[in-house]
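ingest -> validate -> predict -> emit
validate: passed (alphabet ok, no gaps, 119 aa)
predict: started
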Amino acid sequence: MQEYLIAFAVGGTICALSQLLMDKTKLMPGRIMVILVVTGVVLGAFGIYEPFKEWAGAGASVPLLGFGNTLWKGVKKAVDEEGLLGIFKGGLTASSAGICAAIVFGYIASLVSHPKLKK
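emit:
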């Protein structure tokens, strides 16, 4: 039960900080998303993200910080195995399952909810 509470608190804190950035700055949501992804990459590169993710569980791995860390791990692994070419394909290889799931489930949700265009 404690794992769920920690995950909820960490994920909620990340989301609340992102909302504060949107409310208190002139940053557009797309730029805030980029900040979150790059933060996950940087924390992964310095070896800080993995211990944090082990402690926080899904609260740290599901938000965009986790996506950035996944990209980092994929690029690092591909560069170690294939050299500089791994920079271009490592992140996509590591995150392809999550990206594909987002597309498929987004499509299914659009079929179920019958979205309409804004006028």
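Residues 59 and 78 are 27 Å apart (CA to CA).
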